[in-house]
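Quick start: load a record and inspect it. Here is Methyltransferase domain-containing protein:
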Amino acid sequence: MANHDRVSERYYGEINSEESHEATRTRIHWMCREATGKRILDVGCSQGITSILLAREGFRVTGVDLEEESIRYAQGELAKESKPVRNNVEFRMLDITQWKVKTLFDTVLLGEVLEHFAHPETLLIQIHRLLQEEGTLIVTVPYGYHPFYDHKQTFYAGNLAMCLMPYFEVLKLEVHHKYLCCVARKRRKTQLHMSPTLKQVTEWMQLDHVHFAEVEQNHLRLMKLRKKALDQAVEQVKRLRRQENVEG
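Running the structure step on this input writes:
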């Protein structure tokens, strides 16, 4: 079953909630800000919004995705752009893990991709090959558990960093809305048995601590609101029953 990720439609506010629109825009704009160099590979480009935004700023972007429907939509959106933007983007339907191209990129984007891999090293080894020396990897994943049928990984600060560490040096980890956002640099050589330093572990734990505290506070507020609404509903039912008894 295809994922049918409708990211461009969410970005423009055409589907889902206002909160979803804001979260999508925040994540995509963050990725665009972190891109370096001129040649960008957008892996899992979906409907193409990130590739097009970068092309508007003069980047040369290749967007790839497994889903024919998504690539067709992206190409339709690109056709609406000016000629300079159209010349800066190429959309292709392909399996990135099998791509034999010799082109090297300055930045690779993995927006909402890694959580779909049961064996992420398959993808990361290929991304390492496709990046220039000290090239930039930008990753966003759902932060914590998100109940989607094709999510094979649940990521927090520590296990995302550990997943990337053998191939990339993690430079930045942040949380924006419900997304864990990471910037990393390509290692000259992969190091499959790396261990994090105590400082790194402490930083990852602190990030999770801060954001889990926020999540718990939000849940408590929501529970209080629901309890208040339930209490009001119960009182209303009692009043209606008393009224029925009086009228009866």
